[in-house]
């Protein structure tokens, strides 16, 4: 029966991992974490054509839609002329003298352009404007007055470096998604990144190695650098207060990250599947570790938790297979289910005196767990909370009688309790 349970949980863990790779799912719950932001292939509405130029020197017939009394948006090119290709300088005005202030949705999507110079008066680059221009290796965003880069504007292009000027106020969802040649990103201003419409700006940029952000940046958006597998280290802004959901998930090459003291919030899945991350210090102002914060950080050997921490969420450290020791601060009141499940190398764990329950699967599959401090405050032990096969030395903060009562009402799958070597009236210091 025990073997059947072990196989079932291993399969469940594998399934949860597959779901995360499909989009940072809820890791074992029945409903995946919603991903409301538009995907790069979401259809967009293109503008109607009001004006059309004569063929330019390259034979391209540019098309425009009026956006103001004397301004237009470049919405594409006419099939009557040539398809834009190679190095392109976009017109700053129409043949009739209208000023170009925007690049329309899908205006040059999928064309063979290799570089682009924007008009000086351009303020908006609309959704998917340059999407799938796989040969596009450079764009100078600082030549214009760009304020908005919309969703998937440069998704799946060949850009190598992106310098986002201070004028940019908004970066849309997946704006640079899947730019697999992109190596360097410099964000010179502080664009808005709140809300799902800004998620995943650089997601899937698998060669990204160098990132520099404005020191006044307060938030890193959800999935902003997810799946940037070549990112080994990153210097975060000194005033950063929040790292969004899945912001660095699946950054499998990330080896170290210094979280600034200003940080107060880490979103769900923030560093999930950062397999190369070795140590981390959670800043003093963080009070909650959300679900799956460090899920599947298989190389994590050490973690320092802050004294103000009150909650460790579900699966927060699950599958951290190199983690050998965990000591929860006295401030912690709640530890979610499967918080440390699959931490195969975990040998020593101390539960704080304010925690009321060992939830289901808390230490499941921690097959090398030798010493565990359980405080007297624990009134319930959920199913399979302890490893099945290991004989654990339990240091219990209450009396022998209280321990007997706790064991009697423990839920199914805790056969380890009957095998454990129990020391009653113990203190956490005895685990040293």
Detailed description of the structure:
- There is one protein chain.
- The protein is mainly β and 432 residues long.
- Helix content is 8%, strand content 22%.
- The model is unreliable at 1-16 and 18-38 (pLDDT under 50).
Give the overall shape, derived from the CA principal axes.
elongated
Largest beta-sheet characterization: 7 strands, mixed
Count of DSSP helices?
3
* Mean of all residue-level pLDDT scores: 91
N- and C-termini, Cα separation: 35 Å
Strand order of the largest sheet: 1-2-3-5-7-9-11
Please state the CA-atom Rg, rounded to the nearest Å.
Answer: 27 Å
Low-confidence stretches: 1-16, 18-38
The proportion of residues in beta strands is 15-25%
Report the helical percentage: under 10%
SS elements, strand count:
30
- Pairing-aware structural class of the strands and helices? mainly beta
SSE blueprint and pairings:
Blueprint: H1 2-21, E1 51-52, E2 62-66, E3 71-77, E4 85-89, E5 99-103, E6 112-117, E7 124-125, E8 138-140, E9 148-149, E10 161-164, E11 170-171, E12 184-187, E13 210-213, E14 219-220, E15 233-234, E16 242-243, E17 256-257, E18 265-266, E19 279-281, E20 288-289, E21 302-304, E22 311-312, E23 325-327, E24 334-335, E25 348-350, E26 357-358, E27 371-374, E28 380-381, E29 393-396, H2 400-408, H3 416-419, E30 421-423
């Amino acid at each position: 029966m025990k073997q059947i349970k072990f196989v079932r949980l291993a399969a469940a863990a594998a399934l949860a991992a597959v779901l995360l790779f499909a989009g940072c799912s809820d890791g074992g719950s029945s409903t995946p974490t919603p991903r409301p932001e538009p995907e790069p292939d979401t259809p967009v509405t293109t503008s109607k054509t009001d004006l059309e130029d004569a063929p330019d020197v390259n034979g391209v017939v540019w098309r425009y839609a009026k956006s103001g009394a004397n301004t237009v948006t470049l919405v594409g090119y006419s099939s009557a002329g040539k398809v834009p290709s190679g190095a392109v300088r976009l017109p700053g005005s129409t043949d009739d003298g209208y000023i170009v202030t925007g690049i329309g949705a899908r205006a040059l999507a999928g064309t063979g352009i290799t570089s682009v110079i924007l008009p000086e008066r351009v303020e908006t680059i609309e959704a998917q404007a340059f999407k799938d221009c796989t040969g596009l290796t450079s764009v100078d965003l600082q030549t214009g007055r760009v304020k908005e880069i919309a969703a998937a504007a440069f998704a799946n292009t060949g850009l190598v470096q992106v310098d986002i000027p201070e004028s940019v106020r908004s970066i849309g969802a997946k704006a640079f998604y899947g730019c697999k040649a992109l190596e360097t990103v410099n964000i010179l201003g502080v664009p808005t990144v709140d809300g799902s419409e800004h998620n995943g700006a650089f997601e899937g940029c698998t060669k990204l190695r160098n990132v520099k952000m404005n020191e006044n940046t307060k938030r890193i958006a959800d999935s902003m650098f997810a799946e940037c597998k070549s990112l080994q280290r990153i210097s975060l802004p000194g005033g950063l207060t929040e790292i969004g959901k899945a912001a660095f998930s699946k950054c499998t090459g990330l080896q170290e990250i210094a979280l600034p003291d200003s940080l107060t919030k880490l979103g769900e899945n923030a560093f999930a599947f950062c397999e190369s991350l070795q140590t981390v210090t959670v800043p003093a102002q963080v009070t909650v570790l959300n679900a799956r914060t460090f899920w599947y950080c298989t190389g994590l050997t050490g973690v320092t938790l802050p004294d103000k921490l009150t909650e460790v969420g579900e699966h927060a450290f699950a599958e951290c297979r190199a983690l050998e020791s965990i000591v929860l601060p006295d401030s912690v009141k709640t530890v979610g289910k499967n918080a440390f499940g699959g931490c195969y190398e975990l040998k020593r764990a101390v539960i704080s005196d304010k925690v009321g329950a060992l939830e289901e699967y808390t230490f499941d599959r921690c097959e090398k767990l030798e010493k565990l401090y359980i405080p007297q405050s624990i009134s319930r032990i959920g199913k399979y909370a302890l490893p099945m096969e290991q004989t654990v030395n339990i240091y219990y903060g209450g009396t022998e009688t209280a321990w007997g009562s706790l064991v009697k009402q423990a839920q199914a799958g805790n056969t380890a309790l009957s095998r454990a070597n129990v020391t009653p009236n113990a203190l956490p210091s005895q685990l040293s």
